[in-house]
């Protein structure tokens, strides 16, 4: 059964107003939060073998720090189509995945809408529908392959945010 790890990029900086949105980097909190989420994935045994990544600087930096926490760097495909993508564009990109466990990192509002609609039953977690920065949901696909992925059919097996994980330590 394919598994999806769906992550919103970590907190980005707004220090340089001259930068285009796609070029905004992570701020210090975002850098720390991304490492936290990578360590959480490793601790839980959610180890991706493929990454689908938006082409923005903040998603690339998020992945860089997540892989520090994971201790590995999976096969990565950077997709311009995931930059500020709608939920339907995210699903279209996901249908082309080839890994058994795929980490997809993108942006709100599309990623939050995708998570809510992809789940058969959204978790009762208070942040799931808001999908804050670096929020991460883990889904087990109710299909044999990515091409058959559909909205409303997939089990959320875990969800976490860096704020709650860092509060536990």
Per DSSP, what share of the residues sits in E-state strands of 2 or more residues?
A: 15-25%
- Main CATH class: Alpha Beta
Residue windows where pLDDT falls under 50 for at least 5 positions: none
CATH superfamily: Phosphoglycerate mutase-like
Overall mean pLDDT stands at 95
Give the biggest beta sheet: 6 strands, mixed
CATH topology: Rossmann fold
Q: How far apart, in Å, are the first and last alpha carbons?
A: 33 Å
Could you say what the CATH architecture is? 3-Layer(aba) Sandwich
Rg calc: 15 Å
In one word, what is the shape? globular
* Strand segment count: 6
> Widest sheet: strand order?
3-2-4-1-5-6
Count helical runs. 5
How many discrete structural domains? 1
Residues in helices, as a percent range: 25-40%
Structural class: alpha/beta
What is the H/E string?
EHEHEHEHEEH
Features:
169 residues, alpha/beta, Rossmann fold, 6-stranded mixed beta sheet, 6 strands, 20% strand, globular
Description:
- The protein has 169 residues and is of the alpha/beta class.
- The protein has a single domain (3-122, 135-168), classed as Rossmann fold, CATH 3.40.50.
- The chain is built from five helices and six strands.
- The protein has helices spanning 28-44, 57-70, 87-94, 110-118, 162-168; strands at 3-8, 50-54, 75-79, 101-106, 136-140, 155-160.
- A six-stranded mixed β-sheet has the order 3-2-4-1-5-6, with helices on both faces.
- Helix 1 crosses helix 5 (162-168).
- The longest helix is centred in the first third of the chain and has 17 residues, at 28-44.
